[in-house]
Protein: Endothelin-converting enzyme, putative
Amino acid sequence: MGFAALVEVAPFFPEGLRDLRGLFARSVLGRALADVGKSSTICFHAVEKLLPRCFSKAAWLLFQSLDSALTVRNWIAQLESIFTSRIRDLAWFDELSTLLVRYRLRRHPVTLFGPNNRPCAPSGPFSTESPLLFYFQVGKHEQNSRQEALAANITELRNHFATSDLNTRAKYDPERMTVHVPMALFNMTVSPNSTLFAFHLSRFAVRYYNALVQVLSENFYERDAPISLSLKSQQELADLVRCLTEDLRKTELDRYSSLNLARLPEVLLDQTMALQLSLKAFHKLLHVRRIWNFDFRFKNLPELSAEQLFFVYYALDNCESTDAVYDAKLENALPARYRVNLPLRQLDEFFLAFQCSDPSNPTQPRAAACRLFANAKTGKKDKSRRLSRPHGGLMSMLGF
Structure:
């Protein structure tokens, strides 16, 4: 406990204690920080951890200054609507489970995005003689205020931030039954009103859906509309997990000693479902394709169709440097190469887009995939209209 307390206040120690500061950064960010010796950066993360609502409000003001706040919220609302409409197509979901999930999603807001109206900073008086003492007093005040609010009103539990707005992945909290979408998930260098922003679905839709699909699981904390799969649905889900497990066994994941191999089929199921839902959202929300029947292409990449670009951006979003230390911290996360390759193996659209054969045997047709959606048919194209006219697109991908 004493060492953990030292890690928590490491930003206030001399810059030379890099190892201790590094542990603090890893505990807050879940990854290493490049320059832990820079006090302004490490203190920034310390204050954000202490007063997350203030940082959320500051980010929201930035969104508003860019005239992007309402547009981004609209994108999220459309993604949730698409998710709700596609639940019925899940291979293992029966009609009752579908109705229960839809009821759960409509009963109360599941997605948390942006700040609430409560004050973000506590009122004093606090000691200003020592930065560390000030930090301690504010932290104690915040904790006491939260406990008092919880005792007075249980709905406060739902409003409490489950994760930081500096994170780049959405997070599902089963206790609160909410998905927190951090503002750092969005790249605001591209206007959300533009066609190009639809290609961000390969990033933020996948990361958002990866959290949202977890509402489909049985939840001990859900009392009003608990999901209880029928025996038939349980068997179908078990068959699907078994199929994904067989695919995992063809990899070299056992060389990652830190991985929880028993959890990986479930992790792969969530990631594959998120990618497939994101592709369906991309087809619907890329308006130049859906409305004007244009195949959006970049002028300097004329050989790549819009659908191929979606998969390329999905792969690029998962590019990351790894080393032995990084691999040792994976636990329940798939390594990047498998986070890309394994879900793509289950998508007919990917094989059709790039005219691939079975990767394990290029001379043979592709082997059957694990079917997550009941209406997926091998070799059949999506019901969207045939794309006949390539769109010139933009001159470059700069700023994407």
Q: What stands out?
A: Residues 376-400 have pLDDT under 50 and may be disordered. The chain has two domains: 1-50, 68-118+165-391.
